[in-house]
Design a protein that fits this description.
Chain lengths: ~300, ~725
């Protein structure tokens, strides 16, 4: 199936050794699905034609069009910028949960590694912060192959543990970002939505563009258990004995309500909220999101 | 409320209702551990659903428990009255059948006995019941005692009724049957007498149902019936007896041996013609120890008695079996009558001579010995074996007192302490001690010290006082008063013989103060009316004190042979228990027999020839006497001859004899029906339609419980399915 659709099954990624290989594979998969990249690189690039208006510089008149159509039009170009991508990866203990072969943290760092590889390959800058309730590891944004190596090394060496405090971490992080750019946050966001929202708002007000990647295990979304369970909460969140079947409906309602609250809040702030399931192909998810984002940046409608 | 169970033991099965609860609790203890990150949502969901889930689970649990409990309860088949559970009851029927199983119901009419008719009618009544509806029946077989033979299901009753083929050899004791009925009510096995159909199937024998007109007091069963009637009881009496008010029947009512222990004897067989017609030429036979004697014929007037005498000749001492028989008639059980008579062995008498002398008139016991050894009514065969000893021999240790039935201390000094102890032991075992006074008897104080005890535990029946003599020679004391109803002296109660006793002169005697447990049999005519003859029971034996001499020292009694000889004969026969006795019991009584040697492997042989080892250890009675293990009532149910065979010894027979009144088949007449107790409602016809068994308000609720269980199970299934679907993964 993966070969037919061009996406990479997560099971394939499981077998790859090293994040570099995973990142490259994911990006190759993404590129194989899109022959022309929506990104124009770092040079000045043509954007569109418009009718000549008095005051326009004559050197921007497209003479070739005038020769063919005898109409004066001027070329408009996209201003050249250098993208700065900050990757924030939640390494709290709840990210260690895995109902299948890979944990949410594994999935999050693959995704982060892939984005870092993609951005640095386009000669933009990428940085990394691994956190739980505090900053644990930081790789300041830079470009180039060594930077990518540093990011991948930091990701591969990290392991989940400790409590979560996303909201506080985001607030703290917003005060330390000097350069405006994109902040991709990988977490399960199992925290009070208001706290998270406060942190996101701080980033937005700081001129940053946060993107929330919510990484969840399918078991957390479906609660497919039966019988009597003793749930030992990760991050020291207590122990609860429950009848799984009796609890399921209410649990699903609660988590759905939480996710919708987050999603609505992010929509209101024009912040992307990208749910990720650890059992879905990473490259397909990424490419879908990136394509939608590219389309949106070109004035298209978000799908 | 629940008033009882058909199968009370199964009611404990209701505890099975706890099984779902136990499973629930066990399941709660088995939780699968799971590390979980999204606890935030679990906690929120738990808080939101906890109460609802508890209610849902509780309802499920209760439904399961109710279903199991109701099933278990239904199996125990409870029954309820008019209380809260009254609506669940079915209109079941409670029937109590009282079956007259007395011997008189063995009367055969045509090919069927009255008893067979009673059983057949009982089967018909039971067959009308419906076990599935919860109908219950108690079947009581009435005889001398009452047997609850079937309870409570009709199926069991029919099964037991089919085994009843012979009546009991017992009379009908209505009191015992009513007592059992009362017990059933008290135990709650009969819920409500007023709602219970009680039927008595009987031959309506007059003796059993009408109180004795000669008695001022009503019979005990009459009062018991009063009490039961107050509780609402009505007994429907079905008369299934023979045709006619006085059915024809001849009975052997008694067999006895006539004569004295030592001499030729006769057997008297008493017959009774219970019918209103004379019976001529009735042949009567008798067998003695299995040997049939020549039969006799006798004529019997209506409702009269006759006695047929059979000469038996001399009989050895010991038990003899007699079996009298008539030609068979419609009631067979009273046509035979067995009896066991015991001819006593000669009583062994020890005479202790306190004043031996050459001249017979001066000797202490010479006249007494002569009287006992010979010169009596049966000169050839004295009923006594007499041995005379002097004081030295008596006090010697070689004399075994166990070899004597009577020990007579004739004018002796008080026995030594050791001898007094031996005497006490022997008398306690059953021997008799006779003490007669005399000039050589020593001091009263020493006698009292050795034999008297103020607490009544001593051998002596009182205290010796002072010797009393007549004031002038030629004056005498005479007997002023005696117990004419006592076996020793009853002979002299006859007016013609009385002077023989009261004319006996006494010159001296010793005053005596009897203790409270002693009985004075004769008193002298002195101023104090002093006791002459005193009796006291001691253990299994008896003690007699004669306050004058038994020789001529103080009285002229020995010279009066017509007084002296019968007096000492009757005295010692009574003391030694040397009378002809019968050994018989009523059917259903227990009996304990005694033998003269250690009984090895005693085995009871019943009249039908069946045998059974007697269980238990024999009890030593002293000497060579032993008591066999008691024979229980269930082994003596039938009339006839029984024998206990002992390995290496003589068999010991006894007889179970029918109450002679059972042969009187006279029935309650139409005119007498008004004299029946008001609680007895006589049914003239016995068809089922005549008095249908009524429905009771109380009844079983097992069917309702079964429905409840089914409803609970269905509700549990639906509820569980709904919960399962609701909780399953979408």
């Amino acid at each position: 199936m993966a070969a037919q659709t061009g996406v990479i099954d997560p099971a394939v990624l499981d077998r790859l050794s090293g994040l570099a290989l995973v990142a490259r594979k994911v990006v190759e998969g993404y590129m194989a699905g899109h022959h022309t990249s929506p990104h124009r690189g770092s040079s000045i690039e043509f954007a569109q034609h418009r009718s000549y208006a008095p005051g326009d510089e004559l050197r921007r008149v497209d003479w070739k069009v005038y020769a063919r159509t005898e109409r004066l039009v001027v070329k408009e170009y996209i201003e050249e910028t250098s993208l700065s991508l900050n990757l924030l990866v939640d390494a709290s203990e709840s990210m260690a949960y895995a109902s299948g072969p890979r944990s949410k943290f594994d999935y999050a760092r693959w995704c982060a590694a892939a984005l870092a590889h993609l951005v640095i390959a386009q000669r933009d800058q990428a940085g990394l912060v691994i956190f739980d309730n505090d900053q644990r590891t930081k790789v300041p944004p830079e470009g180039g192959a060594p930077q990518e190596a540093s990011i991948l090394q930091a990701l591969s060496q990290a392991s989940p543990g400790g409590p979560t405090a996303i909201g506080e971490v985001l607030q703290w992080f917003a005060t330390r970002l000097r350069r405006r750019g994109i902040t991709a946050i990988f977490s399960d966001f199992f925290e009070d939505p208001d706290t998270i929202l406060a942190g996101i708002k701080r980033l937005v007000h700081g001129g940053h563009e946060p993107i929330l990647f919510q990484v969840l295990d399918p078991a957390e979304l479906e609660f497919p258990f039966d019988g009597q369970l003793r749930l030992d909460g990760l991050e020291n969140s207590g122990v609860r004995k429950v009848d799984a079947r009796a609890l399921r409906q209410a649990y699903l309602e609660e988590i759905e309500k939480h996710n919708q609250t987050l999603a609505r809040a992010m929509t209101a702030l024009s912040v992307d909220f990208v749910p990720l399931r650890t059992d879905l192909p990473l490259d397909a998810v990424l490419s879908t999101y990136l394509a939608a984002r590219s389309n949106r940046s070109r004035g298209g409608r978000a799908s | 409320m629940i008033q009882g169970f058909v199968h009370p033991a199964l009611a404990f099965g209701a505890l099975l209702a706890l099984v779902p609860l136990i499973i629930h609790l066990l399941n709660r203890r088995r939780h699968k551990p799971l590390a979980w990150g999204a606890m935030r949502f679990v906690e929120l969901a738990y808080k939101k659903t906890r109460r609802r889930m508890q209610m849902e689970n509780l309802l499920l649990l209760l439904l399961r428990m109710a279903a199991v409990g109701a099933i278990a309860f239904a199996v125990a088949r409870p029954f309820a009255g008019r209380g809260a559970l009254g609506a669940l009851t079915e209109n079941s029927q409670d029937l109590v059948l009282l079956l007259d199983g007395s011997a008189s119901t063995g009367y055969r009419e045509d090919v069927e006995t009255v008893y067979g008719r009673i059983v057949r009618r009982a089967q018909t009544l039971v067959e009308e019941l419906q076990p599935g509806r919860g109908d219950r029946v108690h079947v009581l077989l009435l005889g001398k005692t009452t047997r609850l033979i079937a309870w409570p299901t009709p199926d069991k009753a029919l099964s037991v009724l089919s085994t009843l083929d012979h009546p009991l050899d017992e009379p009908l004791a209505l009191d015992a049957g009513l007592a059992e009925l009362e017990r059933l009510v008290e135990d709650g096995e009969i819920l409500d007498l007023a709602q219970t159909e009680v039927r008595l199937l009987t031959d309506l024998q007059r003796n059993s149902f009408l109180p004795d007109l000669n008695s001022d007091q009503p019979p005990a069963w009459w009062e018991r019936l009063d009490r039961l009637q107050a509780q609402g009881l009505t007994i429907h009496v079905e008369d299934l007896g023979p045709i006619g008010s006085t059915p024809q029947n001849l009975s052997v009512t008694d067999v006895e041996v006539l004569g004295t222990p030592r001499g030729p004897k006769e057997a008297g067989v008493r017959l009774f013609n219970h019918s209103n017609l004379p019976q001529a030429g009735v042949r009567v036979s008798l067998s003695l120890d299995g040997n049939r004697l020549p039969s006799r014929r006798v004529d019997l007037e209506p409702r009269s008695q006759a006695e047929v005498i059979f000469p038996l000749g001399d009989l050895d001492s010991g038990a003899h079996r007699l079996d009298a028989a008539l030609e068979g008639d419609r009631l067979a059980v009273d046509d035979h009558r067995a009896q066991v008579v015991n001819i006593p062995a000669p009583a062994r008498v020890l005479l202790v001579n306190g004043s031996p002398a050459e001249r017979i008139e001066l000797d202490g016991v010479a006249f007494l010995r002569l009287a006992l050894e010979g010169g009596g009514p049966e000169e050839a065969q004295s009923p006594f074996e007499v041995r005379e000893v002097n004081l030295g021999e008596f006090e010697g240790s070689s004399l075994d007192l166990a070899n004597f039935d009577v020990i007579w201390l004739a004018g002796t000094p008080p026995p030594s302490v050791a001898t007094a102890t031996r005497l006490r032991e022997r008398v306690a075992q059953g021997a008799a001690l006779v003490v007669s006074a005399g000039p050589q008897m020593g001091t009263a104080a020493l006698w009292n010290e050795r034999l008297f005890d103020a607490s009544g535990a001593g051998l002596a029946p009182g205290e010796w006082l002072q010797r009393v003599s007549v004031a002038r020679q030629g004056d005498y004391y005479r007997i002023d008063e005696f117990a004419g109803d006592h076996p020793i002296l009853e002979l002299f109660e006859d007016t013609s013989l009385r002077p023989l006793l009261i004319g006996v002169p006494f010159s001296d005697f010793v005053g005596f103060a009897p203790e409270s447990g002693a009985k004075v049999l004769a008193r002298l005519d002195d101023q104090s009316r002093s006791p002459l003859l005193i009796e006291k029971p001691f253990g299994s034996g008896r003690v007699f004190f004669w306050t004058s001499s038994i020789n001529e020292s103080w009285t002229l009694l020995p010279q009066a042979a017509r007084t002296f000889i019968p007096l000492v004969f009757e005295w010692l026969r009574y003391a030694a228990r040397a009378d002809i006795t019968t050994r018989s019991i009523e059917p259903g009584d227990s009996i304990r027999l005694e033998v003269d040697a250690f009984p090895r492997n005693p085995e009871l042989e019943r009249p039908d020839g069946s045998r059974r080892m007697l269980e238990g250890d024999p009890i030593a009675l002293g000497g060579d006497r032993y008591a066999l293990p008691s024979i229980p009532p269930e082994d003596t149910r039938a009339v006839g001859l029984y024998q206990v065979h002992v390995e290496g010894g003589r068999s010991v027979p006894f007889a179970a004899v029918l109450d002679p009144r059972e042969g009187d088949l006279a029935r309650v007449t139409t005119n007498e029906q008004g004299d029946l107790h008001p609680a007895l409602s006589l049914q003239q016809t016995s068809g089922p339609a005549a008095n249908p068994v009524q429905s009771t308000q109380s009844g079983e609720i097992w069917r309702s419980l079964a429905w409840i269980a089914l409803i609970c199970l269905a509700a549990e299934s639906l509820w569980a399915a709904w919960l399962g679907r609701k909780r399953s993964v979408a």
